[in-house]
Amino acid sequence: MNKFTMILTLLLGMMMLFTSSYFSLQKKKFKQGVEVMNEFYSAELEKSFYIP
Prior knowledge:
Elements: H1 2-50
């Protein structure tokens, strides 16, 4: 039982580490995506302003 709980906590810790690193990666990707979208929209806005 003691060994089982040890393995369980180890697995849980590994899962938590994996999920936290995964989420930080997703956050970075999301930030990059938002930046790209902002650049695209600002360019489109400039185009629409230039055309009378």
